[in-house]
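User: Run a structure prediction on this.
Assistant: Running it now.
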Amino acid sequence: MTAAPGTRTRGLTGAEAAARLAGHGRNEVAADRRVPLRSRVAAQLRDPLITVLIAAVALTLAIGDHPDAVVIALVIVVNTTVGVVQEVRAESAVAALSRLSAPAARVVRDGEPHKVPSAEVVPGDVLALAEGDIVPADARILEAAALLLDESMLTGESLPVAKQPAGAQPDGGTPADGELWAGTVVLRGRALAVVTATGADSALGRIATLLRPRPEPTPLQRRLAGLGRVLAAVAVGLCVLVFVLGLLRDQPPGEMAVTAISLAVAAVPESLPAVVTLALALGARRMAARRAVVRRLPAVETLGSVTVLATDKTGTLTEGRMVVERLWTPHSTARVTGLGYGPAGEVRLDGEQLDGPTGGDRLDGDRLDGDRLDGDRLGAAPAEETEALLTAAVLCNDAALRPPPDGDTEWRALGDPTEAALLTAAGKAGLDHEQLRTALPRVAEVPFDSGRKRMSTVHRRPDGTLLVCLKGAPEAVLDPRVLAEPAQLLERTRRAAAELAAEGFRVLAVAQRDVDHLPDPPEDAEHGLRLLGLTAMADPPKPAAATTLAACRRAGILPVLITGDHPATARALAVRVGLLEASAGPGAVATGRELATGAVTDPTRARVFARTDPRQKLDIVQAWRGRGAVTAMTGDGVNDGPALRRADIGVAMGRRGTEVARQAADLVLADDELVTVVGAVEEGRRVYDNIRRFLVFGLSGGGAEILVMLAGPLFGLALPLRAGQILWINLLTHGLTGVAMGAEPVSPGAMTRPPRPPDQHILGSGVWQRVLWLGLVVAAASLGAALWARDGDRPWQSVLFLALLTAQLGVVLGLRERLLTRANLFLPLAVLASAGLAAAALYLPFLRDVLDTVPLTWSDLAAPALVGVVGFAAARLRRHEG
């Protein structure tokens, strides 16, 4: 046993602590310097598409179209405000690190224990740690007793870690065995430790430095920026071209200048930011209804682009709680069902349920008569062996289980999760651990430590005799110096333990012995014991894990597992959930050590990464991004924060995730279920489809107007449309109607097609061809209606004006994936409203004067109506392309 912590060290003096606090600074993670609001706004306004819209405001003001200028300016203000607000919220990730530190710490100063704020802990302080404490700074252990820590928030490994002073292990151990890290939690035991690093130099501080790089633009932002630059060039070019052509036709320079500016505005789909914002906001709202909370709006669309999903193990693919799944005895193997710490589940032995003690009290040590036959036991039924195994596991155990409180459904574990899992298995077999402990009180113990790798307890029976129970790692228990068993049985048990370990289980061996008196010291009781069997436990996969990963693969998303757990455990889980084939070669699993030494030259060839640290998680994500992949990373611990920030989409667990992980992420899963990510990906694809659909509509309509203005004079239509008419068409089509397209329902088959290539242009994959096709059809049909009206001495300009409008309204309906759906009634209502405003432009005297239109007769309306049908048919014909 290691020494119990005392106060033999005097620690620092008060003066020394004050001097070091001044020299090293407070034990806090320094926050980044805040970016001024004006700088944030300026950064948003530098976006190319916003720049185009600003130019559009100036142009509309120049031609006196103040209402249109106000609408475009409002879009700019809303878009900029949303961007700034989301950026400010993202910066709270580093601030969350400081809140994670313990609010107070116990230190030894001047030879006396003191309680000080954790921010005032300095290098050289001696920490006094006990069960439940959060370690406030990195430290080196001086003394320890049965010390067990939860390091999952830093390492991602689900199992607790035993610690003791470096060199105290029989084999010398490793330096890490004697180190404590800031932010980890003491599950059991006590310790004295001297602080080695605080603040930015601690483990939390180093992770904070990895969080600080500002997030890069999302794929959608990059695509829209490229489109904005193209539209800006097109707008300027059109202004010059139309103005020059008008002068060559001897048109008045002032009128041509106004017309050229109007066409430039038509070329820019100024409602695109509004459409994008609405689509993202609606997507975020739908995701929230599906238990996925979006922290940055652009992340909604980016989810639809994801090609690689890097998932952690504990709590994401698995339950996050240890569960006993197998019980091995020399004569049988039992399977244990059920999840969590509750008693729901069964212990099935040869297909039959084991539901309580059999054959009376089996605690008297007379289970076997000592006879042997080739290493096998005689006289014990398999059910009795299994019950004896679980009974000893309950007695040699420091954990406790608590039933769910009112309003909750989950049982709680106190103490080591491994020991709690043993209590749960016993409860499923009908054994009451509290009754057993009362009937056989503990009178002595030898605690578990990482050197011995086993634990033993001594219990007094009602008749005064003693029972020794022992459990530990197979290599520490299956030893002739510990067990009085034939060599054949020990070898067979070792093979069984190895097979279970290869399946990813954590295996413990359990044994017992009868003694007449209490050994002194208690360690003397750890020999001559009888083997009871093996327990195999694991952090089991969630029921939906396999189907969720299969859904990812159907959607063309490659799942990758990144964990801090043991390679065998990680591989076994990956095979179990279908992430990895059982026949996969050794290259499919890479370890952090292999990454660090350069043994793995291309991380993207592996599908499972084990024993990784925060920096390596970051490197793995960056390696995939370097290959052009759009990455999503799930995580819940502090160690996941940097990778969550670096990935294109960071996905944090809402229930069990740390505040650091939640603040660093773009998406928070309120239910901690990976299947929610699949639903979020579907919403992302819906958003991107709607944005591209709007671009087809908006750019084809603008292109049709430009073609009409350029080609009209060739057919004798000197000035096909006036500036006011162009702007009115643009307002009705790109305004309410265009924005309504952002709420269209998801396309059928969205989750059975592969994600779009990350480098694909937003107008790629057939979109620009559809824009050209629809622009040509709408322009040709509209010009045809105008020529028909001119040849019949009808008001051809008003016919052309209405034909262009109805054609574009026909296109917007034709582009719908589900024509008669009731999922987005906003769109048909918007089309009706636009049609009504188009009629108002012809029949309301005030608007007729402003727009220079004339009323049309019923016969005059036939041609524009037919053009609307042509636009609808053309859109339906090409709606599935791209």
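The domain at 302-318+543-672 is CATH 3.40.50.1000 (Rossmann fold).
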